[in-house]
Amino acid sequence: MMNLTEKEFLEELRHDFILEAEEYLQTIAAGLLDLERGDPPPRVMEEVFRAAHSLKGAAQAVRMPAISGLCQVLESVFSAMKKGVLHPSPEGFDILQRSVDTLAAMVAAGGEDDGRGAEAGKALEIILTDEAPSGSVFPPVFSRRKETAGAGTTETVEKKMEPLPASFSASEDHGREGQERSAGRSASRETVRIGTDKLDGLLLRAEEMISLNQVLDVRLGEMRDLRHLLSEWLGEWRRTENVLKKTGEYKQLPSRAAEFFTAGRDRLREAWERAAAMERSLADNGRTSGGLVADLLDEARSVLMLPFSSLLQGFPKIVRDLARGLLKDVEFSAEGGDVEVDKRILEGLKDPLVHLVRNALDHGIERTEERRAAGKPEKGRVSLAVSSVERGRVEIVLSDDGKGIDSERLRESAVASGFLKAEEAGALSGEEALMLIFQSGLSTSPVITDISGRGLGMAIVREGVEKLGGKISLSSLPGKGTRFTISLPVTLATFRGVLVREWGHQFVIPTACVRRAARVLRSDIRTVENRETVSLDGTPHALVRLGTVLGLAEPSGGAEKDILPVVAAGTGETCVAFAVDGVVNEQEVLLKPLGGILKRVRNVGGVTVLGSGKVVPVLHCGDLVKSALKGTVRSLSAPGEAGEAPPAILVAEDSITSRALLKNILTAAGYAVHTAADGQEAWETLSRGEISLVVSDVEMPGMNGFELTSKIRSEERLSDLPVILVTSLESAEDRERGVVAGADAYIVKSGFDQGALLDVIRRLL
């Protein structure tokens, strides 16, 4: 039995083992790809063999016998390959790659074997036997070369294998998580292993120092204002003194008053000089602090900056496995792997890139016979290039030489799904039609497979890219191929943002999605298809009020201005002009998450703290544009009658946090929200005014949610009022009580989804 200290030591060793194992597995997987392509340098076989041997020893050291056992068999296969007596066919490489996938899955599971490891070991052991199993129908996967005793000739014996067990079937996802992580150890560089959580904390603290510079800027501005005030006061003092002297009134002043007048002028001049000196000192300190913080940030970011190669190295295997499964011959190439970006960008970019590659292979690249008939090279090509295009941004280009995207089929799909009318689809340009591919639910695939066809993937790709502060575009030529271009910031947490004022609030719009800031005349606003538009640089833009989109309460009594400040912002090809009260400035912004309970709030991507200490929301451009184009906004061209009042929803919840969350969600969705801290207060609110729907917790002091619902149903005036219970009580009995009480919907907090709540509300209203 191990004591506690030994167990803790073993756990620490296993944690280090996981990181080491991922590097060994990546070496093996990459080496197998090189070996399969043919004629690799001799060192490749040696690296693969040594990686399997080292992984076996490391697994034995941390007491993971299942992993070490599979490595033992794999090492034996590599030894035979190294000696030149075993030569894998493509099917043989399939088995070896699946074995690596299985090892990765076992490493991720802490050394546990769910049966796949044993099956993989059996498959590899069959390869090493001298005789093929009887009745085998599996195609030859290895050929073993052995010398015939005394004959001096070489005999080739084709080995055949039985079909692999179902649990060891082709699966591109087995262990993929481990194999696509960064690898590549360098013996020439000394390194120290540090947990990424510690590095994340270090970078966050360094980034938060940006706020110190912003505070210094604010204080510098305040000191500058104070100096101007003292200067004006000193000038007025001197002018008054000169007038008194010219008129002779100065001599008539009592001596004490004259002395006070002169001393006051001198003190005022001294205060002005001190203020000027402090202003210069603050400016110098600001420049010094700014330089130090910038250097510290660069150093801290460099610690968490990873080369793109750490992400790209997993793609050759992804392409190889997918191409084999789709019966296609595809060559993958990548360049720009030395470009470094924030590791958080790489983590967020992985899924969108994987989906684009899967789409390229499934939809883009044709099968060999199709390419041959079209006069193309039989082997398809998919390439991924990364480059630094400007300071602080990188560009990723994924291209293929497949059949391209059929814009006509996209138009037909948009009409069939009800997304567009036939005349609207026909009016789209070729580029606009291609952008339909990013709409959720649209797909040109005739069937749904486990790879694609549901019409959701490309929408998720764009959302993922926009979440990282980037944008995606595409171009495609029929029969020639498709090209996706993604532009992203180098780092995630800090960026440039435009600070705007709107209806007594301040907001930050990321500069990356701002196309133009301008001032327009109210008389220049036009109405096109029941939507107000304004022309910027000769291009019409939909015009909406930012406060209306965000669901803010419009201040009363404000005079309509003839000139409107607008900020044109958008994603992709879509751009909307947002009217605001004023554009303050552009500045460096440190993005802070909203926290767990407010992880996803429509139109808001996070918050930032200004130098004044004020917390300001950072708007999410993608959500903002969608809300603007879907919503109904008040007319900006001239004052008019108020539109129809939004439905009023009553939220009854005793938890302050939950009440604030629900109110925020519903307000952002355009509803008028009233709140109550318990059932009794909710009932009193219902008796005072018109409420369209009630959202209530169950467990509340005084009158609980069940009792409130029953009371609503017993009142004739309110008997048809929709009631939704949102509660942590999830047992069947509690749900039944909600039904008996008369609730129209019962939503459990543990599985709470604001989209589901809003869908239920829309159905009930």
List keywords for this structure.
Four Helix Bundle (Hemerythrin (Met), subunit A), alpha+beta, five-stranded mixed sheet, six-stranded mixed sheet, Heat Shock Protein 90, 24 helices
Detailed description of the structure:
Helix 2 (42-61) runs antiparallel to helix 3 (65-83). It is globular and about 120 Å long. It is built from 24 helices and 26 strands. The two termini are 64 Å apart. The longest helix has 50 residues, at 255-304. The protein is of the alpha+beta class. The chain folds into 5 domains: 4-179, HPT domain (Four Helix Bundle (Hemerythrin (Met), subunit A)), CATH 1.20.120; 202-304; 308-405 and 444-489, 2-Layer Sandwich (Heat Shock Protein 90), CATH 3.30.565; 494-630, CheA-289, Domain 4 (OB fold (Dihydrolipoamide Acetyltransferase, E2P)); 648-764, 3-Layer(aba) Sandwich (Rossmann fold), CATH 3.40.50.2300.
**Low-confidence regions:** 130-189, 446-455, 632-643
Shape: globular
Radius of gyration: 34 Å
In CATH terms, what is the fold-level topology of the largest domain? Four Helix Bundle (Hemerythrin (Met), subunit A)
Give the assembly state of these chains. Answer: single chain
Q: Mind telling me which CATH architecture of the largest domain this is?
A: Up-down Bundle
Largest sheet: 6 strands, mixed
Rounded mean pLDDT is 77
SS strand fraction: 15-25%
Give the CATH level 1 class of the largest domain: Mainly Alpha
Major sheet: arrangement of strands:
13-17-18-16-15-14
* Count of DSSP H/I helices: 24
Question: CATH superfamily assignment of the largest domain?
Answer: HPT domain
Number of strands: 26
Helix content: 40-55%
CA-to-CA gap between the ends?
Answer: 64 Å
What's the domain count? 5
Which secondary-structure class do the elements indicate? alpha+beta
